Amino acid sequence: ARGAGSRRTKEPCGLGVGDSTAPATVAQTADFAAAALPEPLEHKVVHSGPVSIRGRPSPQAKEVGQLMRGRTVLGYPGKGWLRLTRGGAPPIEQRFEGCWVFIGNRLEAMCLRVTCDQ
What we know:
This protein is mainly beta. It has one helix at about 25-35, and strands spanning about 40-45, 50-55, 65, 70-80, 80-90, 100, 105-110. The strands form 2 sheets. A 5-stranded antiparallel β-sheet has the order 6-5-4-1-7. A hairpin with an 8-residue loop joins strand 2 (about 50-55) and strand 3 (about 65).
């Protein structure tokens, strides 16, 4: 069911690993996020296995590194991908700045995390 304030768009909500969205479109969306947000978003690696860092936002792009579970990274989202920026815990290597990680069920946006205090 749709809420009264919702609206339909022609764009898909997310980008699956097999989606054919052009990397340039993904990068442009991340550029918009970088312009609109006061700082990069913090994400935590929640996937049980290693998560690929890719040179561009495409599942066919060369893997240039990996992130392990529990690692925190900073970046700007673009159509289901995260463009990495400096920072994180521990900070990412400089060579990974501007590289991409597919968000999917691999990363959790810490700003969207729900917690309950009793």
